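Ligand-bound model needed. calcium ion.
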Amino acid sequence: MKKIVLIEDENGIARMISVQLQLVGFEVIQAKDLATALELDLSEFDIIVLDWMLPDGDGPDVIPEIRRSTDAPILMLTARSELVDKLTGFEAGADDYLTKPFDMMELIARIKALLRRSEKQKPEKTEAQLQYGEIGMDVDTRSVRVGGEEVVLTPTEFKILEIFMRAPGKVFSRDELIELVMGYEYEGYGRTLDSHIARLRNKIEPDGHERQYIKTVFGVGYKFGDER
Ligand code: CA
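Prediction:
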């Protein structure tokens, strides 16, 4: 399991990032400030996600110190968007840079890309190819087949199905799903989520049968298939 240290003081953001990353198989340790982060054995981690503005200083300022204990890639997070800051981030030795608010899927994609670069090895096929029942998904080519037939999904439907397929049998509350699919901006999204799921069901569920894949969990939300 890949280990990530998340140096981030905003608990809401940290929790959302942790949930997302754990769902795709990472172990996440949060450090709420620079002092706490520097007390950790940073060489244990595969990647460092570093917020810019922290209670006891600026993220870029400690990059040289981080570099003394590890070569792991550093992904900077920041609310600042000016190009000058972006350049400063890279000059300080960060490997990549994301401006808040960002899409969670984008964060995961960047982290995976950084890990692939640092490991200099091919991504594991099993990670990109998911199979459940008759449904096969290739995350790299963004294609979905049901019983061998290609099914065309919208990006949102694809995201929802990927979240489901990575965690068969897990019960997701609607709020949790919205958070996972939409990242930060999700106010009033509940009905929209339901309609995305209705369309996804029309595309993947067999005709004329009770729901085989996406099940409604009354009063809670949804689950996909059964635990394996
Ligand atoms: Ca911060």
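The longest strand covers residues 2-7.
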